[in-house]
Structures are given as C-alpha cells and as structure tokens.
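Cross-posting from the modeling subforum.

Setting up a comparison between two proteins and wanted a second pair of eyes on the formatting. Protein 1 (sequence, then structure tokens):
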Amino acid sequence: MARSRPRIDAVLIQAFIAAALSFAHLHDLAAAAGQDGWKAWAYPVSVDLLLVAAWRRLRSGQDRAAGWCWFVITLAASLGANVATAGLLDLDDVPAWLRITVAGWPAVAFLGGTLLAHSGPAAEPKPVREREPEPVPTPEPARPAVPVPAALVEHARKVAADHRNRTGTPIDAPTLRARLGVPAPMAEAITARL
C-alpha cells in the first residue's frame, strides 16, 4: 500500500508567517515602550493567547458578545503594533500615551482572559438549594422480652442446621415460626439467639 505524502498547506504556512511577523511587531513595540527582557516577549504571547481565547468563545456559540468584544480589543492591539512599527512611529521616542497603554495591557489581558474563561452559561454558578432535613427514623417501641425455654432453643438450633444443610442459607424468623408452630414474637426471639 502506497503511503500518502504529507501535503503542504499553503494557508497554514501563510498563517505561521503572519503570526511570526505580528509577534515580532508586538515585541518591538513593547521593547520600545520600556518593557525590556522577558517582558517584551510576554506581550505578544499575551495578545495572541487572548485572541485565541476570544476566537474559541466565538466558535463555541456561548456568550458571543464577550467573544466579539475581546476579539476586537486584541485585534486592535495586534494591528496597532503592526502599524506603529511600520515607520509611522519613532520607536526611539515613544509617546507617553503609548507607554501607558503598553504598561496597562497586562491588567486588560488578565481581565479579558479571566472573563472569557469563567463567564458564560457553562460557568454560571447554580443557586445552592437547601437540602430538606432527612426524616429521623422513629424507633420501634421495644417489645417485652419473650421468655423462651432452653429446650426450645436447642430444638430450634437443630431445625436451623437442617434448613442450612438443605438450602445453604440461614433460617429466617417466618420459616422458623412455621417449622416450630410458635407465635411470631417467640420465633423472632429464638432467631435472635441462634
């Protein structure tokens, strides 16, 4: 059987290139706005992950308004970085409003991520219903002890042993009552002693 060769998907290649360029633009803008080292690399990750979370919310069909809101916010952040680094902005002299915007982005991204992850119909808390108290069983009135002669208990042991040998199960009070011809309270008292 011939193996099929992996097919190169031009759309995925294009998406990877676009993502890499957008990632680089977000990094460059964050670095120019004073976020150096690992922080400059965290910005594009934050924007892209929030964009993916918003897209997933849109695709799920749940709470689409929140999905659209955060999708537009993250798309504006990504597109803004792409345009800003295209030579329209002097990256050596970033305006104060842009520094403030970049510095405030983590709080915005945290809010968006939290709302997307923990809102919507699937995550709404359900009201806690109070459980009704379980009824307390009322104890049966204690029956007066039924006197049982020792000879009758010995005879009942023989009947119970015979029953176990024939059936493989212990004898119960109704069967013992029938075999001995005694009243029900006495049969229960004898069964308790076996």
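Protein 2 (same layout):
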Amino acid sequence: MAAPGENLRINGDRLWDTIHEIAKIGPGIAGGSNRQTVTDEDGEGRKLFQKWCEDAGLSMGVDQMGTMFMHREGTDPDALPVYVGSHLDTQPTGGRYDGVLGVLAGLEIVRTLNDMDIKTKHPIVVTNWTNEEGTRYAPAMMASGVFAGEFTQEWAYDKEDAEGKKFGDELERIGWKGDEVVGDRKMHAFFELHIEQGPILEAEGKDIGVVTHGQGLRWIECTVTGKESHTGSTPMPMRKNAGRGLAQITELVHKIAMDNAPNAVGAIGQVNVYPNSRNIIPGKAIFTIDFRSHELDTLNRMVERLYAEAPKLCEELGVCLEHEIVGQFDPPAFDEGCVKAIRDAAERLGYSHKDIISGAGHDACWINKVAPTAMVMCPCVDGLSHNEAEDISKEWSTAGAEVLFHAVVETAEIVG
C-alpha cells in the first residue's frame, strides 16, 4: 500500500472553523453544546453536516438506526470502503469536541483529498453514529452496538427517556430513520479520532495517543427499596432508609475500584432518590454503577464482589436491593495493522506519541468486533470532558486530524 508523504497536510484552520460553526446548533449555557440524541437540535446538526458533505461531493446513506454514512467513491468498484467517523450527539452539558472532532476530521480528510485531486482505490465513508453518548437513552454506543449485532433494533427502538418517549418514535419524528438494514455494510477498516477525555497526553506532553486497547465496562442499575416515613417522628431503630443503602453501596463501589487500581475504576454517576422531599426518609433510591477495566478478569471480579457484598449491606439496614446490567462491553484490543498505520503516521509527521488505553467507551469498541479498527487520540485540557468547559487547542486538533488523514489514506491506498 502506498503511504502518502509528509507534505500531505489537512487544513487545520478549516477544520477548526467547522467545529465551531456546528457548535452554534444546540448551544450550551456555558459555551459548550447540548445536542442530545434524536432531539430537534440533533436533527438540525445532522442537516448541516449533510450539507457540508454533499458540498464535498459525498453521497449519503442512512440506516434504520439513523446512522449517517457519507460516501466518497474509490477507483475500484469491488474494494470495500474505509470508514472514518465518530458522533455528533452530545451530553446535556457537553463540550464542543467530544465526538464532533472525529466526525468533522473525517469530512476534512475528504475536503483535503478533493483539494489535492487525490483518488483512492478504496472508497472512504465518513460516519456519524447515532446515540453514542447514551445520556438520553441507555446504553451508550447504541447504534454501533446494533450495527455490530450486540443489541437488537427492536430493543433499541423501545428504549425510553425520562419522559417516556421511545427512541424509535423520536428518531422517526426528527426525520432521520433511514431505510438501510443496520449492519449490512461491510468495512475494509474503521478509524476514529477522539479527544482523550483524560489527562495523560497533556501531562506527558504528547501530541498523539495511539490507542491499542479500550476499557470494558459494566453499567449496573441498582434499586434500593426501603420505606418512606417522616424524618422527625420515626424512631431511628425503626427506619428503613433507602438513602443509607445508597451511601453504603457508594463506599463499597469506591473500595472495590481502589482494591483493583490502577487497572480499574468505578463510581456511581447517576442517582435518583424518591420522593426527594426534605422531611421524608427516602423510600427508594435508583442509581447506576460504572465499573471499567481493560482486563476482563478484573472487570468480572469487580461485578462478582459487588453482587456478593452489596445485598448483605442492604439486608443489615432492612432495605431490599435489586440490580440489573443495563450496559456492557468487554475490553477491546484494536487491530494491530490499523494501530500500526496510526503509529507510523505519527512518526512520519514528526508528532510525539505514546500507546494508550482508552478510558472511555467509543463506537470503535463495537465496530472492532466486525471490522479492523483503531483509534487516534489528541490531548484535552486537564483531561476534562462531558463538561461545557472541555477544551482543546487548534494545534492538537490539527495534529490528530493529520495522523488520522495519513492512516486512513494509506489504508484506502492512493491511486496514481
């Protein structure tokens, strides 16, 4: 496969301007973004992305999960496409770069190829996966999970948000329910650029993270049920306080994660307490535990320990515990050939780099099950993400996109 030379560079200013132009759609309240999946804002962002892609000569396909596939022709009609992308949906108080950088860097690859009149043997497909964040509809990486056969489409359609609105209905309402059968597309390879969402690259002064593995995760939704009663008139020994069950399990989750550090993490990130009144002892607490590790055995041990110890803690308090896994995937090891293409690109371009394990889940984690896959990461300030204060520099975005460009184009094979 022909490798493009060091003189092939993307237009970093154009990429940067494109990122901040789409940020005007679904603006947050503190400079970030709020384009939650299958909202009107998500639909508007998709329309703008579609226009940019069609202006660049790409043709669009949309599958029944709403994932957008923007196609640039290759010279060989029998060659499988090289896919590149990420997601445009955000957290409710999300930053401007999480996911968006990876999608728009894919568009910038195509724009750069057009500028230089470069053709590739394999087609290139820029992809916007639906509902990567999983904040409105759990689990995260929903559309890529259906694509990879991990979830059924019917199950995904039936997922409800906090207002009882079904994912499938909302997808159709905003006009982005496509006709393509999900998962029918075949890939030569898939590449994803993402901000690190952690502090390692910035702390070590590295331009590029070459992602070799991802962390597996288990999201465990727990319901602790006690008995609502008056906070002033119920004697302490007679209380069945669901809030205490939440507190005890919170400490247990922290202890389990610490006992498995540095190869694992864990926390409770979402909590709802009922009836949430100042003078009523909580009768119910519903919360989600997030365990992660790049070692499958470690991840499974953490879950097993939780299941063994948490019910005993609740029993001692006189409350009941129910639990259910609502999101999971095993730790992925990315394709060695695709990883090498990224590492070689960073070397060729003179960017400092290091191998890294992704602490967050990404669409690439599911696609890795059905196609050769790898990820590029760039630093983000203080490792902050899922926060409107999330920030990167134009230089970081340019470096990440240039490494992505070279890896994708090398894999797609320049013609002539």
